[in-house]
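Problem: given the chain below (123 residues), write out its structure.
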Amino acid sequence: MKHASSREVFCYWNALRGRRIAPQRKELDLAAVRKALADSVVLSFDRYAGHSVLLAGTRVCALFCRELKAAPFVMLWDAGSRPLLRSLVARVGEDVTAIAAGAVGRTRSGHSVALEMLLLPLA
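Solution.
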């Protein structure tokens, strides 16, 4: 993982889960990773609703120039990338596994933005 925020969230998640496959959602204390929250997104696992955004940090919302809460996560990506995103989120939710991936975003003016995505399941 390249970004400090990703490492911080992963270390917290990993410590919280201990020897279990994933920590319980009710155990999550966002204050414990408050420095990383601006760079974070928390999703619901609901394939029919496109995995809605439950919480989106200020820096993530700034990338999209809007509030992302309740937005279908999959719809934030271009049409060609959506099947892959659906597959990644499904793998995390169904197989209860963590995934780290690189992504490239594009601004409206065509500039590219390197992003890191860390998908972590909660039980």
